[in-house]
Amino acid sequence: MKYLFIFAHVLYLAIARFSWCNRLSASRTCCNYPQIFPYGTVKICVKRAPAKANLCYYDCVFNAINICHKSKCNYLKAYDYINWIFPANHPFIDIYRKAFRKCVSKANELHSNRLARFKSRGCNPLPEIVYLCVENEMLTQCPMDYWNTWNPQCQHKRDFINNCLGKDIE
């Protein structure tokens, strides 16, 4: 009976933690970082991507802005793109540069056999992996002037990323 109680308690905590994660605020409500994808590209890719196929959306966008091609993403292409869309003194330019360098490097290290099982409708999963990684970097590196201090869920999300998804690995 004692073990059943402990199991039930652990199960309750796991469910509570999972539902807590689902209640975390959206990234852009926590850090007001600038959108980097051109509206026209986004609009085209939303139309092209099948319903519920995020992989196809990110594959379309990253190919359109020339950051990814086929099964590889290129940090230097991302760097050039970031330099093209932001003025030199923009507060997010260095954050985006570092984020793309880290995330493209990590994503390209993934073995293609592992990624093949995540392919959806012929779309490459690598761009979405890069995007989610960059989004996490935006949250963990967000300048205080752009950080939402009034929503405690934002700090919970930042803590979750830092503690559960790993520290910055250079």
From TrEMBL:
Keywords: Secreted, Signal. One of its GO terms (cellular component) is extracellular region. InterPro entries: Odorant-binding_protein (IPR052295). It is found in: Secreted. Gene3D superfamilies: 1.10.238.270. Residues 1-16 form the signal peptide. Belongs to the PBP/GOBP family. This is Uncharacterized protein. It comes from Glossina austeni.
